[in-house]
Design goal:
Elements (H helix, E strand, L loop, with lengths): L6 H4 L16 E8 L10 H12 L1 H4 L3 E8 L3 E8 L7 E3 L2 E3 L3 H20 L11 E5 L2 H17 L14 H4 L5 E2 L5
Antiparallel strand pairs: 1-3, 1-6, 2-3, 2-7, 4-5
Helix pairs in contact: 2-4
Amino acid sequence: MNRPESLGALHRRKPLRLPQYDYSQAGAYFVTAVTRDRELLFESPAAQEAVLSAWQAIAPHLPGVELDACVVMPNHVHGIVVLTPEDVPLVGTASGRVGVTLGSIVGFFKHQAARNINALRGTVGQVWQRGYYEHVIRDERGLERIRDYIAENPARWGDDPENPVVPGASRAARGRPYQALGGGGL
């Protein structure tokens, strides 16, 4: 029987992060977190509010973080996180001293949102897909483009190829508006 040396070799994930990039440095980042199996967990206003509450809890909990535009869609969340770590004390780790990282911010958000959603639904278990998508926003033009994308995302939901077909739901029902927060300036 021929077996691969490692089953992990069959399921190796492509790294999403930029190699050698310091995700604790000051800057703006566009992030997207998606529900497990793209399940439509955030369709109800109560679920949207639970996720938005977790998003809004980031800045008060993590020093050196500001939040910009955000939208809660039925099975994913888009948002802009701004790191301003100049005045933030560094913490010691095994690999050195670092401030708050984008990964720790997204991890905090996903944990809080999962707690809120599971409490709302009376369930336990995984809410999110592993990992998240990120994009480093390099300039003001890029920031405005991404803010527009976030603001317009709910209107495009009915045409989104990642929008699962919901039995019995009309395109109009799938395209209804979702919770959004507008962006401010950097």
